[in-house]
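Notes to self after the Tuesday call (sharing in case useful).
The group wants a holo model before anyone commits to mutagenesis around the pocket. I volunteered. Ligand is adenosine-5'-diphosphate. Logging inputs and output together so the record is complete.
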Amino acid sequence: MTLIEAENLDKTFRIYNQGEGLRGYLKSFVSRDYEEIHAVEDLDLEISEGEMIGYIGANGAGKSTTVKMLTGILEPSSGLIEVDGRNPHENRKKNAMNIGVVFGQKTQLWWDLPVKESFRLLKEIYEVSDEAYDERIEEFDEVLQLSDFWDQPVRKLSLGQKMRCELAAAFLHHPKIVYLDEPTIGLDVAVKERIRDFIRKMNEEKSITVMLTTHDIGDIEDLCDRIVVLDGGKKIYDGQLDDLVDRFSSRRLVLETDDWIEIEADGVKDIQKPNGQVEIVFDRDIISAADLMREVLEKYDVSDFQIKEPDIEAVVKKIYNEGLADRSSQEADAS
Ligand SMILES: Nc1ncnc2c1ncn2[C@@H]1O[C@H](COP(=O)(O)OP(=O)(O)O)[C@@H](O)[C@H]1O
Ligand SMILES: [Mg+2]
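Result:
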């Protein structure tokens, strides 16, 4: 069943170019001197109940803006959103009962209250029964080990402890959907593992739908089958992680040889010569490694070879650092 649906979704921010002082400020309104930022553009998205999707893209790609529209915090400039049959902005309160959110560094807990009091309050807000509450806290504690700091005020917690609390808080009322915007940022490996275990458990055992924004390649590999990639506000990929890697990264045939190799075959994209080896970059949809190897061996002496598979980390890093290379290289060519 479809739980989240967006159609032709747009969010445009207007930034007024202010001059100096009050005069400049007023003038900026009169002269309508502003820039428009298309944070999200023409986005179509469909997420079914029980899915766990990774929502990724470079800084400024529009990920958080999307999440803010889905949670109802921001109103779209145009387009449609339905979350569990409701427009989230027009039904903010109802929508809030249905969702959980973790926004990177922001807290939904009460800074000066002990952790247990914060959870008591959340229990009341979300109308969780005593029975369900006790059961869930015990279950959360097994994975997130909340008892370590249950009586401490939130402000005294370390970043990792706070994030464990935030996660528990987001799932306490067993919402239909949980949005996690950078939940593992700045955490050490052990805490990340714990948090991933917890997210996986909630998704698998309680069928809670999760939309996860993260820079952490481990989060993505560990948790997400489906990946949606955003670039400059637009969706540029929606599918399996493996296919993404296939599509945006090339294989390499690495040769040990003293020869200066020149191969002109369809599917050969580049030949590089780093540290005494020869690397042939090729597209395996056009030429197989075996055919390429045959071509090489017809003409050259090769003492050893190896095929380098594309690695997920490199692809995702590329997406985060520069969007997708295809686009930037086209721009570079045009200039
Ligand atoms: N409240 C805002 N006012 C103006 N511009 C904004 C606002 N929020 C986000 N933006 C701009 O919209 C674009 C997308 O931002 P964001 O959704 O935060 O990206 P991401 O989460 O992928 O890093 C960026 O160019 C950002 O500067
Ligand atoms: Mg963001």
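Two things stood out.
The radius of gyration is 25 Å.
The longest strand covers residues 2-16.
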